Every structure is written in C-alpha cells, then in structure tokens.
C-alpha cells in the first residue's frame, strides 16, 4: 500500500507477486472510512466471534451430516397450518425420531416392546400412527380415509407415508391430518403414562376441536395487525413541507468492475434540484456498495445547505444497520458508523429510511448510468435517463 494515501502500490505489488496473486490483491477494495486493521471472524455478520457461529461452522464444514438427511418435500411440512406442537411431532415422525418403544429399545432402554394400544404388535412409528387397529379406526372416521389406506398399502416407512399423504391433501385436510397424528400420539401417551384409554371417536374430535380453536385464535390475533402495518413505501412520495428528499442507490453491472452510485435531490413539490453520479472500483460486496452510496450522499448533501433532508435507499440491511446500536467490526460496519457520525454532525430534523426498489427508481437509473461515465458528475439539468420518471412521480 502507498505510504501517505489509501491506495494499492500497483508497481510494487506487480514486482513482488505473480500476476494472479497481484490481480487478487488489486481487486480488494480499500475504503477510506476504514482506518484501523482488525482480525475479523467470518462466521458472524458483524465480524465478532461467537460460540454459536463456531458450532455452526463445525457442523457445516467438519462433520459429514449427509447420512442424517431425510429425503422428502419438507416445505409441505412447514406449510401446514397447525399448532407448532403438531408440526414438531410431524417433523419428529419424518426425522424418524419419535420415542416409540421400538426406538427406545434401539437406544438400549429396557422397556416393553408391544404397542400399548392393541398389545398385538411391536410399537414403531408405522404401527402406532397407521397400522394399529386403534389408529385405523380413527382414520376411518375421516374424509381422507381412502387416501391414507391406499398410501399405507404401498409404503412401509412412516416418514414416506406422511410425505406422500401431505402431497395429496388439500391445505385444510393436511392440517387436520397432522392434528390427528398428534392426537393419536397423545392417546398412546395417555395409555402408557396415565393408564387412561381415550375412545377413538374422542381422538378424532380432540384433533378437530384443537384445530378449530387454534384457527379462531389466529384469526382474531391476525386482524388488527394486518390493519396496522402498511410496510415500506412502494411509490415515491414528496418529502414533508420544507424538507428535501434525497434518493440514493448503488449499481453493480455484470462484466464491469465498478460500483455506480446515483444520488438525486428533489424539493417538497417533487421538483428536481440536483443529481450526482460517481463510481468506484474494484467492485465491493453489494451491501458495502450501498453503504458507500449513503456515505457519498451524506458527504455531499450537507455542503449544499438545503435544510432538513429525507434520505431514502432500497437497501434494508444498510438502513437497519444505520438505526442499530449493535457493534459491527466489519468494513461494512465501519462505513455505516462513518455515515452515522456525519449524519449526527451535519443533519438536523433529517432521516434515513428504507423504501422499496420501485420508489427508488430515479436513483437506480442514475447509479446504472454512473458506471458508464468517465468521471464523477454533478447534474444541474434533468438527465434524459430519469426525465420521464421524475415527471410521473411529480404528479
Ligand atoms: Zn397397536
């Protein structure tokens, strides 16, 4: 690196390293905001070491877990609209880890082998949920008895049966099917642990009632929430009276080792004030480029003395980090800290908010154009590429 400025010493690097290594070094972006060297832990987003991430890394990288994978469409399972305890049981059936007597014996537990409900056959998942005469009776009370019967004749593994049946049932039936499995397991536990024999009709009605109650509670709970949360804006809105709005975006074109930055300022009538495009090279990670866009805007706009500014960008990660007090040791975190310090020094009654991409179209177009121009530009007149969007958004 050069001594006095933050730039790679191209000549020196090409003398010391072979061309491939030299190219990799020169393609590593250098950010003026980052002034201190640190060791970072790549397992966490904020660069800070945690036992949780180290454990996750060990499981992913070091331990071969392929033998533990169970084939099947797991999305079918997660989509079931049923209480979490029901989904948990279905997950355990599909992972083949329900504590049936057969499984307990496999694990060395000294317990009886026979099914507690019929006392005829060994108790494994296939038997207790599907083949046991008691469970068969429960299924016969349901409208999807036919589907269940045909699948259990062709499969001999409980997890495969569950996946097969879920594939064939409607959303409502899948939820009831899952609740019945749960109720059958409850019946089995009541028999073993409480010595209580639930009638088969009760097993069915318990599942039905539980599902209905859960749906009622969910509907009540969901109603006010859906009225309250409008979500981020999807169309561009004029800033409050007396404020200006500054939209910012970064662009990453394929086959172009540059990050383009587009910044556009408009007044409270939606009229164009100024725009700026700039770019830097080499390419950074997307969220880092977006943070650099915000930094460029914050650095530039305060010099213009326009009063309160509403900054908007479509990177949720940057906006969330900007408003977060969590420490982040990565280069991205340092750049966001730099943004915060400029914002708190120079801006009063201003804001930095997230908007959807559709509401940030002007900045997006400018950022794209930025990578194609030779130098940085301050645009006093409306550029052609955004004219029609500006007019539409003024209306
Ligand atoms: Zn049985």
From TrEMBL:
Which ranges carry the RNase H type-1 domain? 247-370
Its source organism is: Trifolium subterraneum
Tell me the superkingdom of the source.
Eukaryota
Instruction: Please report the stretch or stretches of sequence annotated as the Reverse transcriptase zinc-binding domain.
Output: 49-139
Q: Please spell out the taxonomic lineage of the organism that makes this protein.
A: Eukaryota, Viridiplantae, Streptophyta, Embryophyta, Tracheophyta
What name does this protein carry?
RNase H type-1 domain-containing protein
Gene Ontology molecular function terms on file: nucleic acid binding; RNA-DNA hybrid ribonuclease activity
């Amino acid at each position: 690196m050069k001594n006095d400025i933050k730039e790679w010493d191209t000549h020196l690097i090409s003398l010391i390293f072979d061309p491939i290594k030299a190219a990799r070094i020169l393609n590593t972006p250098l950010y003026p905001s980052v002034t201190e060297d640190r060791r970072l832990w790549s397992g966490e987003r904020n660069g800070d070491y945690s036992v949780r991430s180290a454990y996750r890394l060990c499981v992913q990288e070091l331990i071969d877990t392929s033998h533990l994978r169970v084939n099947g469409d797991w999305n079918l399972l997660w989509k079931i609209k049923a209480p979490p305890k029901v989904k948990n049981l279905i997950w355990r059936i599909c992972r083949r880890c329900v504590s049936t007597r057969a499984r307990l014996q496999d694990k060395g537990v000294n317990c009886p082998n026979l099914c507690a409900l019929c006392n005829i056959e060994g108790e494994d998942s296939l038997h207790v949920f599907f083949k046991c005469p008691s469970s068969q009776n429960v299924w016969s009370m349901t409208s999807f008895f036919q589907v269940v019967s045909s699948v259990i004749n062709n499969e001999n593994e409980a997890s495969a049966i569950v996946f097969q049946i879920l594939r064939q049932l409607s959303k409502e039936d899948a939820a009831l099917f899952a609740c019945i499995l749960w109720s059958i397991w409850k019946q089995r536990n009541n028999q073993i642990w409480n010595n209580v024999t639930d009638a088969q009709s009760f097993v069915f009605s318990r599942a039905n009632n539980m599902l209905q109650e859960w749906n009622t509670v969910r509907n009540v709970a969901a109603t006010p929430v859906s009225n309250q949360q409008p979500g981020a804006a999807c169309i561009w809105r004029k800033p409050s009276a007396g404020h200006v709005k500054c939209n910012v975006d970064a662009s990453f074109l394929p086959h172009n080792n540059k990050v383009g930055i587009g910044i556009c300022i408009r007044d409270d009538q939606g009229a164009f004030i100024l725009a700026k495009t700039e770019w830097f090279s080499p390419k950074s990670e997307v969220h880092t480029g977006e943070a650099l866009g915000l930094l460029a805007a914050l650095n530039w706009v305060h010099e213009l003395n326009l009063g309160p500014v509403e900054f908007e960008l479509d990177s949720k990660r940057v906006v969330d980090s900007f408003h977060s007090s969590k420490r982040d040791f990565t280069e991205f975190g340092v750049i966001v800290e730099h943004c915060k310090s400029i914002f708190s020094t120079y801006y009063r009654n201003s804001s930095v908010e997230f908007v959807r991409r559709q509401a940030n179209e002007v900045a997006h177009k400018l950022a794209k154009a930025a990578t194609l121009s030779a130098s940085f530009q301050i645009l006093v007149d409306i550029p052609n590429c955004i004219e029609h969007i500006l007019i539409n958004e003024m209306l």
